[in-house]
Specification:
This protein has about 110 residues and is α+β, with helices and mostly antiparallel strands. It contains 2 helices and 7 strands, in the order E-H-E-E-E-E-H-E-E.
Length: about 110
């Protein structure tokens, strides 16, 4: 299967999971999917899950509530997307922010 290099706006392009016990989650997903893991201290301990050396999703520990997956959608303009989400009645959970050299992101819900 070809590796995806870019995404059209509105296309799901990344997922990550917040977990209460990151070591247990690594053991589980490592066993189920054969993932390996790389942590980035510059992003607060964000862990990238890898399959065959390629990034497949992210993982972060939290201490408040159950595990929760987040799906990210590609956009050419994160600020404009946040404005459109707000205008249509969506809730902005985390405003637009820079994510190091990776780009910009926000978290919203409908």
């Amino acid at each position: 299967m070809p590796e995806k290099q870019s995404y059209l706006p509105g296309t799901p392009s990344w997922t990550d999971i917040m977990v209460p016990d990151i070591e247990a989650a690594k053991a589980f997903y490592g066993e189920v999917f054969g993932w390996t893991f790389a942590s980035a201290t510059e992003f607060g301990g964000y862990t990238t899950c890898l399959m065959n050396g390629k990034s497949v999703c992210g993982m972060m520990q939290h201490s408040d509530g159950p595990a929760a997956w987040t799906t990210y959608f590609d956009t050419r303009d994160a600020d404009a997307s946040v404005a459109a989400i707000s205008a249509q009645g969506g809730t902005i959970i985390a405003p637009t922010m820079d994510v190091g050299p990776l780009g910009r992101m926000a978290i919203a819900q409908d």
